[in-house]
């Protein structure tokens, strides 16, 4: 398979679209946790009960369509190879948790891969929807409609006082986690993000890296999301997140401008060095690749590099993950082999831009 | 930035401490941070669940009176009739077994919810369409009641009368619905 073909299949259609403020906001996501009433939660449920829920979804929702989300396909985790599961995790279509406890879990994925409804995760149902760029309101509205669509056929575990009941007390109430993925190279180069994080935390929001909770982000990508799910309406939570993200966007733009004015040539040097590394390296580990890709993307955003599309960062951040590399190579690779594959895939991808 | 301790390696651990309003910043490398005990939680793989279950256990014991464990001992006998999850088990794993656990452990979970959700213990968001039929009505009535109060305060009695009638008709609707169910 050619790289072009592989990429077309690997990158979800919605990721190729542009969204508002997409120079800084990579994607917006809403996740709703829901459970069936009168069924024990997946963690302690018996196999039959989990299978019953799986079958229910297969019967009622497989190949169904709702609005723009066509032909939901049910993907059972136990029917996948480990590398296939890893690819779904790397595409953020399923959570690592779902892929791990894969005996009775599945996901319903819409054809455009914008919606994924995870079944038998920590909760019975996790509805997840993505939009490109900064579109939290739209994501919330669509998620809520999808939720209503499911509720037509499902009795939810709901309580007047506590709201939507979830396995973990950290999700109860709205069951909603709204998050925004942001590329903040200037704020992290100037260490401003570290100073802003405590203030953001005080508003009931969390800042974390793209994978996991560590304070250090990979490729200057940060995820901002709500921590509180109880006692506030969905709209209020999203509004709070919205206003913080808006401020971060403004600050990042200001920091980029200041960097260009104060140390333009150093910044340009850094960007083109990273470009050189990506174009020429024969071995590259994921952390270095992420750093260089972030620099390259910044160079594109600042119009220092104009023949490469913006989407290169999102694209290559996903394609250079271990699961994808192995799927492309059609073989299991050791970490050393992966670093070599990664370097050649990046070179090949950048070469495509030169040919055009 | 170099490490403030060894001045050799780059500082990768950045710590801000506020003690009595006095702010100090520490920038050290990972090795020095470990030596100084800034990172002693790192290796024990401390998860959110550990933290949560820690909160459950602390509840019930009073550091002031020295009288401990009584409410907790009672709670250990508590068991969810639907899924069979014991309170003790719930406290250990920090997860509920089913929706009914919320009811079973109702009077014990407010402290934890308060801590996790900035003091909140009651839901104030979406209500399911089908299932929450009466809840929608009740929420609407509450909203009109708040409106009525402000209207009276502003001495807009004509509007207030309309609002009151609306509340009455909604309440009638609610009672009919409830009678119908019984």
List the helices and strands and how they pair.
The complex is a heterodimer of chains A (356) and B (182).
Chain A: H1 3-10, E1 25-34, H2 47-61, E2 73-76, H3 82-90, H4 96-100, E3 106-109, E4 115-119, E5 125-132, H5 136-151, E6 158-159, E7 163-164, E8 176-183, H6 185-189, H7 192-202, E9 205-209, E10 221-226, H8 234-280, H9 286-301, H10 312-319, H11 322-329, H12 335-355
Antiparallel strand pairs in A: 1-5, 1-8, 2-3, 3-4, 4-5, 6-7, 8-10, 9-10
Chain B: E1 13-19, E2 22-28, H1 30-35, H2 48-58, H3 70-76, H4 87-93, H5 101-104, H6 106-116, H7 133-153, H8 157-181
Antiparallel strand pairs in B: 1-2
Extended strand count of chain B: 2
Adjacency order of strands in the biggest sheet of chain B = 1-2
Number of domains of chain B: 3
On the 0-100 scale, what is the average pLDDT of chain A? 90
Our measurement of the CA-to-CA distance between the termini of chain A, rounded to an integer number of angstroms, reads 20 Å
Widest sheet: strand ordering of chain A: 2-3-4-5-1-8-10-9
Tell me, briefly, the overall form of chain A. Answer: globular
State the largest interface: A-B, 46 and 38 residues
Number of helices of chain A: 12
Structural class of chain B: mainly alpha
* Weakly predicted, low-confidence segments of chain B: 40-45, 58-73
* Helix and strand sequence of chain B: EEHHHHHHHH
Helical fraction of chain B: 40-55%
Poorly predicted parts of chain A? none
Beta-strand percentage of chain B? Answer: 5-15%
Element pattern of chain A in H and E: HEHEHHEEEHEEEHHEEHHHHH
Q: Can you count the helices of chain B?
A: 8
Largest beta-sheet details of chain A = 8 strands, antiparallel
Describe the main β-sheet of chain B briefly. 2 strands, antiparallel
